[in-house]
Design a protein that fits this description.
The complex is a heterodimer of chains A (113) and B (115). With 113 residues, chain A is mainly β. Chain A is built from no helices and 11 strands. The model of chain B has no long low-confidence stretch (mean pLDDT 93). Chains A and B meet through strand 4 and strand 5 of A and strand 5, strand 9 and strand 10 of B.
Chain lengths: 113, 115
């Protein structure tokens, strides 16, 4: 099955700086890579996703890059704000069963004011 | 759009008791997922329904766990009998039909504590 590794596990940044989270996956047939943000006491919320036919996608201050050859993808948050503080999860779809997502262990991001 | 609705939001019960978690998916979504989240194991898929039919229950930990989806707008996850190691946050998620079909939308979760 798919194995997703996520780094770092914690990340502290100064407000206004950028934050980068990296994930690797094992299944070369994976074709869908969503990123979720989970705030305390809430469910994961999709913030951005990318499909394997695209190398980069951007939505305002958030961008995701995908390198299929190396089997890794990254989340970039620019101009961080205190409300960006949360746990972020990457995920990759299973190459065989497309409904199945394998999640990374999560990155706790703290934005210092 | 009210999003995925789960109840109860919190549940405290004693070992051996039956626990029933409930989920209402987003209207029009034809796929529903139950997940469990723990510090040790992260987010794990328990069961996946498509058009109210269980497609993949390989993640259900043992026979004490069962899930049903009697109609397109309601699903339950039951644990009987409950054990302390079942303590976790249980999420329900649904997925739309059509464009962007891979996207799963999560509910707020049920935090379960088994004493």
């Amino acid at each position: 099955g798919e194995n997703v590794e996520q780094h770092p596990s914690t990340l502290s940044v100064q407000e206004g700086d950028s934050a980068v989270i990296k994930c690797t996956y094992s299944d070369s047939a994976s074709n869908y890579f969503p990123w979720y943000k989970q705030e305390l006491g809430k469910g994961p919320q999709l913030i951005i996703d990318i499909r394997s036919n695209v190398g980069e996608k951007k939505d305002q201050r958030i961008a995701v890059t995908l390198n299929k050859t190396a089997k890794h993808f990254s989340l970039h948050i620019t101009e961080t704000q205190p409300e960006d503080s949360a746990v972020y999860f990457c995920a990759a779809s299973d190459g065989t069963n497309d409904y199945k997502l394998s999640f990374g262990a999560g990155t706790t991001v703290t934005v210092r004011a | 759009d009210a999003g995925v609705i789960q109840s109860p939001r919190h549940e405290v019960t004693e070992m051996g008791q039956e626990v029933t978690l409930r989920c209402k998916p987003i209207s029009g979504h034809n796929s529903l997922f139950w997940y469990r989240q723990t510090m040790m194991r992260g987010l794990e898929l328990l069961i996946y329904f498509n058009n109210n039919v269980p497609i993949d229950d390989s993640g259900m930990p043992e026979d004490r766990f069962s899930a049903k989806m009697p109609n397109a707008s309601f699903s339950t996850l039951k644990i009987q009998p409950s054990e302390p190691r079942d303590s976790a946050v249980y999420f329900c998620a649904s997925r739309p039909t059509g464009g962007g079909w891979e996207t799963q939308y999560f509910g707020p979760g049920t935090r379960l504590l088994v004493l």
